[in-house]
Specification:
The protein has 491 residues and is α/β, with parallel strands linked by helices. The protein is globular. The strands form 5 sheets. Strands 15-16-17-14-13-18-19 form a 7-stranded mixed β-sheet, sandwiched between helices. Strands 10-9-8-11-12-20 form a 6-stranded mixed β-sheet, sandwiched between helices. It folds into 2 domains: 273 residues, 3-Layer(aba) Sandwich (Aldehyde Dehydrogenase, Chain A, domain 1), CATH 3.40.605.10; 176 residues, 3-Layer(aba) Sandwich (Aldehyde Dehydrogenase, Chain A, domain 2), CATH 3.40.309. The protein has 15 helices and 21 strands. Strand 9, helix 6 and strand 10 form a beta-alpha-beta unit. Helices cover 38% and strands 22% of the residues. Helix 2 crosses helix 6, helix 3 crosses helix 4 and helix 4 runs parallel beside helix 5. Bound molecules: nicotinamide-adenine-dinucleotide.
Length: 491
């Protein structure tokens, strides 16, 4: 299905205490990567906007924390119903602002809804626990919200990444302050309206539009207890350092350079499709996209399949657009540099024509670089576009040496039909997520999402069981009501 682009400019404000109010900073516009035209407008939020909004959030959170989890979950059930009702409209909008195809937009939202479903299960599963630890003495776990928590999200998943944290943080009793990407803020209007319609009390979801100034004011606000961040490694590190210096809890997910180890015994159909779709999906603008193919031994038949499938990708319907014109220029310049350095361009997306009527959009076709050398720019820099660099390796050990040498640690996959060889890659990969014959090894709920090394600053994962400890405190309660007669230090 073709993405429907908004016909009129969307006004995108801040959502504060249940109302849409304009930020008092500078105006900025949002262009669709599809045709390069302005589809929305917003205003930066200043430190004073942040101050007022967090004060409302903090007041609202007190009552929410006293609301039983089953009541909080009722709002989340309703939120899910509304998202499912509006799924097509939200998917069109998020695709229009981020450049995704409609199918990718919808898949991202569905993955976000999976996290929401996980949050819905907490009322039945996250029971804490109580045990009589000595005669007449019991110990008990109680999960308590932190208060006001914040989240800063990237352009490439305008709904999925926020939905990794919104349902869990709210269900646990927090007030949630969200700073969407200033490149793709429009989806936040739909999500905030859905939560409002679902009956979320005013002040519990705050949306603040803006960039660096807004982010820094949010982190610095004394009432913001925890900060979740997803974006590039440079900013993730800066956010982590700023927050932790203030003694706050921060989990900051960063960028990636993901490897696929291809062995000659791999099923050519599985690997051709899996690897091609991994580097071209979302036009390569995914932190889980394949970026480097480590071809061990003779994998020519597999490489031919990958090239053949990628070369058939139709821009606009099967592969989406790049977020900005500047990013297209950056990608083309990186390909030029690699070519000058001696790399063979097996598939050249630099001159792929834009879809008809979208010539002013940000387009580049799938590109495959062969005979890339280890340590080179094409082998190590996160390009964030539909570019696959192939490095030929004599054996698995040399392939894993290359994989291990890159500072990032998000994902690594292996394509093989040999379980023992797959296990070698699984156990030696320096990443938080590994796939076998899967090009994009994103764990499905309830398995958690998160990388290691320069792909994540902070401890634990952003979804799943471990995220509960990030968005809440565990209170340990030890109770005795009567003096016991046995001879025990607790009696
Ligand atoms: P980005 O780092 O430029 O922006 C992320 C967020 O930080 C946005 O909300 C942005 O407005 C804000 N921001 C930008 N500059 C800032 C500054 N100087 N100080 C404070 N905040 C600032 O990232 P992006 O371009 O939006 O997203 C792409 C990047 O995100 C890629 O590197 C990709 O790998 C990464 N990413 C990682 C994951 C993951 O799970 N590890 C998921 C999605 C995207």
């Amino acid at each position: 299905m073709q993405v429907e682009l908004p016909r009129e400019k969307i006004q995108c404000s801040n959502f504060v205490n249940g109302k849409w109010v304009q930020g008092t900073g500078e105006k900025f516009s949002i262009k669709s990567p599809y045709h390069g035209e302005v589809i929305g407008e917003s205003f930066q939020s200043t430190a004073s906007d942040v101050q007022k909004a967090v004060d409302f959030a903090s007041k609202a959170q007190v009552l929410w924390a006293q609301t039983p989890i089953k009541e909080r979950s009722k709002v989340m059930f309703q939120f899910r119903n509304i998202l499912m009702r509006d799924i097509d409209a939200i998917s069109h909008l998020k695709s229009a602002e981020s450049g995704k195809t409609f199918a990718e937009g919808k898949a991202g939202l569905m993955k976000g809804i999976e996290v929401l479903e996980y949050a819905l299960s907490l009322q039945n599963l996250d029971l804490g626990g109580r045990l009589e630890v000595s005669r007449g003495v019991s110990c008990e776990y109680r999960r308590e919200p932190l208060g006001v928590v914040a989240s800063i999200t990237p352009f490439n998943f305008p709904a999925m990444v926020p939905m990794w944290t919104i349902p869990i943080a709210l269900t646990l009793g927090n007030a949630y302050v969200w700073k969407p990407s200033d490149k793709t803020p429009l989806t936040s209007v739909k999500i905030a309206n859905a939560l409002h319609e679902a009956g979320l009390p005013e002040g519990l979801l705050t949306v603040l539009q803006g960039g660096q100034e807004t982010v820094e004011a949010i982190i610095d606000h004394p009432k913001v207890q925890a900060v979740g961040f997803v974006g590039s490694t440079k900013i993730a590190k800066a956010v982590y350092q700023r927050g932790t210096q203030l003694g706050k809890r921060v989990l900051a997910l960063g960028g990636a350079k993901n490897h696929i180890v291809l062995l000659p015994d791999a099923n050519t159909e599985l690997s051709g499709t899996g690897i091609s779709d991994s580097f071209t999906g979302c036009a390569g603008q995914r932190c889980m996209a394949a970026s480097v193919l480590l071809a061990v031994g003779d994998c020519q038949a597999h490489i031919n399949k990958i090239v053949e499938r990628a070369s058939r990708m139709k821009l606009g319907t099967e592969m989406g657009a790049i977020i900005t014109a500047a990013q297209v220029e950056f990608l083309k310049a990186a390909i030029d540099r690699a070519e000058k350095a001696g790399v063979k361009v097996l598939l050249d997306g630099r001159k792929t024509p834009a879809p008809k009527g979208m010539e002013k959009g940000n387009w580049i076709g799938p590109t495959i670089l062969d005979c890339v050398t280890k340590g080179s720019e094409a082998a190590t820099l996160e390009l964030f576009g539909p570019v696959l660099s192939i490095i030929h390796c004599p054996d698995i050990s040399s392939a894993m040496e290359i994989e291990n040498s890159v500072p990032y640690g998000n994902a690594c996959s292996v394509f093989t039909s040999n379980g023992a060889l797959a296990e070698r890659v699984i156990s030696s990969a320096s990443t938080g997520m590994v796939g076998v014959n899967v090009g994009v090894p994103v764990p499905r709920e309830p398995f958690s999402f998160g990388g290691i090394n320069a792909s994540k600053f902070g401890h634990g994962d952003i979804t799943g069981q471990h995220s509960l400890d990030f968005w809440s405190n565990l209170k340990k309660v030890t109770v005795k009501w009567e003096k016991q007669n046995d001879n025990n230090w607790m009696s």
